[in-house]
Every structure is written in structure tokens, then in C-alpha cells.
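User: Can you help me understand a structure? I only have the sequence.
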Amino acid sequence: DAATTTAAETSTTVADGASTSSKPSKECQDLEERDDGRYDLGDAGTVVVARNGSTLELVEVIEADGWTVDVDDDDDDEVEVELRSDDGTKVEFEAVIEDGLQTVKKILAAN
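Assistant: Let's start by predicting it. Here is the structure, written out as C-alpha cells:
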């Protein structure tokens, strides 16, 4: 089963007009490892990763209309891709192999 975690930090304005910084709301979802390596990232698009033993390879990123792609990391044991929409919404994809086990996460950050 996939697990979902949500974390948010809000902005606060005090009486003298000063405000604290805020971070956008984030939702992290663990994804099941897929035999075909194809991961649907909802409105953002699709990422395809190939696993060969203890190595990972980014095969393809198919971004949806209005989204841009930035490949943050493409090492033998890790693939990190960030997709950002025209309105600032960000979806991060991360696949990592540690100790022979693959973990895959999708992180959605509101603008």
C-alpha cells in the first residue's frame, strides 16, 4: 500500500506588520515499484525508469502541456526529476536504490 504524508507551514503576520516566511504545502506519497518502470504523476506527466540490478536509468520524462522538466539527479542508484507547471505547482519524483531495495516517491508542492 502507498503511504501519504502531508506537511504544511503557514505564514503569520503580527501586530507590527512583520510576517514570518512560509513554505508551500507538501504531500509525499510512496509509490510501489513497478515492473514496467512507468510512474504516473497525475496532471504533471509520466516518468519512466529502468532498473538493472542495483542501477537505475532515467528512460523518459513525458511532461503534460504547461509543465517543464528539470532532471535534478541521474546517478546509477538515484533518479530525481522535478516538474513545474505554469502556475508554479511543483511535482518531484525520486527513485533510489539503497541496500538493494528500490524506493520511489512522488512529492506534490502547491504553489
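Now, to help you interpret it: Confidence is low (pLDDT under 50) at residues 1-16. The chain is about 0% helix and 60% strand. Let me know which part you'd like to focus on.
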